[in-house]
Amino acid sequence: EMSTYLRDKIMDSLGTIFSQTQKCRAWLSDVGALIWACQPRDLKQAFMWTTPLGLIVRQPYRAASETHMFTPVGYTKISGSMLEPASAKQLSALAPNLIHSLDATHLAMTALEMTNQNKSMMAVHDSYWTHACDLPSLSRILREQFVDLYTHYDPLSEIRSQWEEQFYTDLRRHGVRLPEPPERGSLDLKEVLKSDYFFS
């Protein structure tokens, strides 16, 4: 009972503490639903985008099919995948997958710059590590790459542009123009360069 109370309080506070993040998530959700509604029912396409490094991200979520069969050892369930994208999963995964793809871009940019400076680096998801003697370099480089990425790349404007192209025919048929993304917040990205707790 107490954990449910705390969960609800935390979830309620997120919109206040991270208001810009919530606006971005809501925009992605609204735009995704708009695009989904414009596509013909039998020709739905999975959402795709290209990261700043050229990696094509395609959400693989498809509606699952199940068949129950009787075999000599009893009933068994055979699962497969149909061609139709799974609508709920396609839409709910947009924000997290976009963030994951941008985190992966930041990781790759950091690794490339470490390599350019002849420094070793390993990583798993958002855990980066290197030799102790190279930690100051890694700390500086990952901050520089983050600032570089988001100074020159506006994720929501870019994904809007890509989706307008990917879903052009469907949007045009319905006379729909995707709404502008929320304005960027007031964070001075250069402050990241001085932040002790940006990345640990």
Automatic annotation (TrEMBL):
<dbReference type="InterPro" id="IPR002092">
    <property type="entry name" value="DNA-dir_Rpol_phage-type"/>
</dbReference>
<dbReference type="InterPro" id="IPR043502">
    <property type="entry name" value="DNA/RNA_pol_sf"/>
</dbReference>
<keyword id="KW-0808">Transferase</keyword>
<keyword id="KW-0548">Nucleotidyltransferase</keyword>
<dbReference type="GO" id="GO:0006390">
    <property type="term" value="P:mitochondrial transcription"/>
</dbReference>
<protein>
    <recommendedName>
        <fullName>DNA-directed RNA polymerase</fullName>
        <ecNumber>2.7.7.6</ecNumber>
    </recommendedName>
</protein>
<dbReference type="GO" id="GO:0034245">
    <property type="term" value="C:mitochondrial DNA-directed RNA polymerase complex"/>
</dbReference>
<dbReference type="Pfam" id="PF00940">
    <property type="entry name" value="RNA_pol"/>
</dbReference>
<comment type="similarity">
    <text>Belongs to the phage and mitochondrial RNA polymerase family.</text>
</comment>
<dbReference type="GO" id="GO:0003677">
    <property type="term" value="F:DNA binding"/>
</dbReference>
<keyword id="KW-0804">Transcription</keyword>
<dbReference type="InterPro" id="IPR046950">
    <property type="entry name" value="DNA-dir_Rpol_C_phage-type"/>
</dbReference>
<feature type="domain" description="DNA-directed RNA polymerase C-terminal">
    <location>
        <begin position="2"/>
        <end position="171"/>
    </location>
</feature>
<dbReference type="GO" id="GO:0003899">
    <property type="term" value="F:DNA-directed RNA polymerase activity"/>
</dbReference>
<keyword id="KW-0240">DNA-directed RNA polymerase</keyword>
